[in-house]
Amino acid sequence: MADADDRAQRTAGPTALCVDPLGDPFLRTRIALPSRSATYLRRQRLVRHLDQALQTPLTLLNGEAGAGKTLLAADWAAGLRQPVAWLTAEEGDGRPGVFWAYLLQALRACGVPASGAIGLPSEAARVDHRLLATLAAELNERDQPVVVVLDEYDRVIAPEVAEQLEFVLHHAGAGLRLVLVSRTEPLLPLHRYRTAGELTEIRAAELAFTPEEAVALLELHGLGLPVHAARALVSRTRGWAAGLRLCALAAGESADPEVYLKEFEAGSSTVADFLLAEVLKRQKEEAQDLLLRVSVLQRFCPDLANALTERTDAEPILVGLHRANAFVEHLGHSWYRLHPLFGEILRAHLRVRLPGLEPALHRRAAQWLLSCGSLPETLAHGAASGDWGFTADALIDDLAIGQLFTGLRSGELDQLFAGMDLKAAGPATDLVRAARELSQGDVERGLSHLHHAEERLAAAPVGAAAKLSCALLEALAGRLTGSPERAEKAAETADGLRREVPGELLDRHPEVTALLLTHLGSTLLWAGRFEDARATLTTVADTPGGPSTVLPREESMGHLALIDYLNGWIGRAERKALAGVSEAGRPGSSRPCADGSVTGTGLLVLAAVAVDRDELDRAQALLHETVLLSSTAHDPVMAAGHAMARARLLLARGNARTAVEAADPGVRAVVPSPWAVSHEALVASAAHLAEGRPDRAAEVLQGVSGDQPACAVEAARALLAAGRPGAAVDLLDSIAPRGQTGPAVSVRACLVRAQVADGAGDAATARRLVEQALLSARRERLRRPFLDARPWISSFLSTEPLRELAEGWLTPGPSRPGEPTAVDERPLSLVAEELSRREHDVLERLAGMMSTEEIAADLYVSVNTVKTHLKSVYRKLAVNRRNEAVRRARDLKLL
């Protein structure tokens, strides 16, 4: 029987060439190169890669449906000088006889006729080995290789066809270059070809369109789209060729194509029709059900998928879908995700096919993820399910309430809980509501929710995590209301609760302790208990931590800087403030968001220091930046610091009356702040003096005592200006000699005493005190006290050796080698070293005179992103304009 078959194959006549082994005529469309439309975009990078196929026996184009594989191969093949045999596979090609009959017909069509020794298969189900061996031998004898392209090879599922193809490929040698275009991995031994360097591969990632290619493709469809908009479209489609083309066709019919491409509803588009027909409906029923259910997930593993399907077959289905390039991407470690556009379409289809199931799927996912310790995804799915009690409990039980205030996810969490149902009730939901209100500065509503939470906590047994969360919010309430007693009580409660909370929770959430201590330290600072505040805040500032503790560390450094400033140590204050601002620019900081969720105490201190150094424009720029922060209005320390710095700036510019209005911090606290009250009185006194009311100026200073050294010295100067030198000296003598006052206090005190001595006729003492003040001020570049002492001090500064001490930093003139010069020498290198790589990129383009829009286009980012980077660069270089930033960067050798 076999011999008869062999004879039949060898003696097949010419008429046999017109039909396949089934007796059906050969379809010429299957062996013809597919045509390319006028809107086809040739991507030269892929064509160059495909050219390598001429050097390797085997080439694989592997990607999902609509990835552009077929048209890429056809366009490349059309440009070859070598003969190209093209065959588009069909389901029937799983029968070896049919497959080889068509392949031989494709060879003949491209001008590579097989000899009579090869013959044709006579049966659909089998092919003789002699035919394959003869074909391989004839191909091996060719001087020029023939390129065989097998399109849609994934339809050929018969293992024997793959074995036969491997046999012919191996023995054809250099006479055959085989190109497989497939959605799935072929059954050929690809590993052997890879190891030998005999395989050319182009896969889905390389087939994806780049933003620039997407722009070019859309232009072919008559659509103009900027690169940043194309980047968003490519991100949504993952560069999927069919998706981009279908979107372009639909956008061409829209009144506003750019808006359509940005906002089109995937579930009701032509893209949906394509994917549902080409991908979903091709799958078995179990796989379709799984795809629909996991569409509610951002990522999934077999166990999670099983939880949603309530079956146990997810693993083999997911492996098969991934291998079939069915828009299921493998993330590694058994985790997968759907192509984003496919996911959108499946979710829309789920709502139609299985209405009402989506919330239940989110609930099952949340419960499974909670058991695995994945809190962010648990909260997202809990919120999507509408089960706010479960979601709030998950946040509180994990001790993650601090993440609403600090860390990378604070904005995301706030937005997530913004949709919380008002009917949701329980201790956890009340705590979350209180946290959100307090974080936004609504103290009244926050305290109301906190009170409800405490009532419910007292009435029902709850875990220590909930009680510790409550203590954290109590500490914040104490800070916002200026109540050290409330904050201290909360801290004491928290100390006891920490022993009851599992250690791994505390280790996972260091922000809870950091935030609590920061709130306590801020409240103590408000109350004027500087040393207690310093000890508490130093604990936070010196504790290493990750992104979640960046904001508390920054706040603590800013508050420590303010304590130093209030004690007169402006150099120390500046260094701490710069360190805090630099901390905010590190990865994990929320400062670049510019959403008002961060502190700016350090910036206020830098502004106040700039006023003391008579760098008034810089002070104004720093104060302007703090206005953008919501904490300026809500936090008492921040409000008082801003009022103090702004009032001092206005006084320095001669706007006394406006300074009085600015000096009021506008906060009503349980305990008044002694230093805030004293500074407000000082500004009022200065205004009275400026308007010729010395008695009234002295009257408003009666509450200022030596317990606030900086305020006492300023008050003494005002009393002296009011004609009361004795009262001024008495007030200076009352300052407690605690050794805590720095140059900003001692210099002013020296100048007041010097003026008193000069007025009493003791010029020698006055000169000695002025000299002492100059020596101390020169190290800190402290100019303001001397400017405020004009015109009285001018005569002293014009005499030697005082003139020499003032030259180069206080008055014009050459400076001695090694001494400070008149050039502004702010220690900005501390900040400049913190410029990120992207900020350097922006700075370089800034120096090249590029506009904001040009920088955005050159870096492939949005204009708003560039503006954010520029704002950060200006802050770190302590400048306010582009040309100043470039000049400062060049001075610091950054350009």
Describe, in plain words, how this protein is organized in 3D.
The protein starts with a helix and ends with a helix. The strands form two sheets. Strands 2-3-4-1-5 form a five-stranded parallel sheet. Strands 6-7 form a two-stranded antiparallel sheet. The chain is 60% helix and 4% strand. Among the domains are: 2-207, P-loop containing nucleotide triphosphate hydrolases (Rossmann fold, 3-Layer(aba) Sandwich); 211-264, no CATH class; 829-891, Arc Repressor Mutant, subunit A (Orthogonal Bundle). The protein is mainly alpha-helical and 895 residues long. Helix 22 runs parallel beside helix 24, helix 31 packs antiparallel against helix 32 (616-627) and helix 31 packs parallel to helix 34 (636-652). It holds the Pfam family AAA_22. Residues 832-893 form the HTH luxR-type domain. GO terms for molecular function: ATP hydrolysis activity; DNA binding.
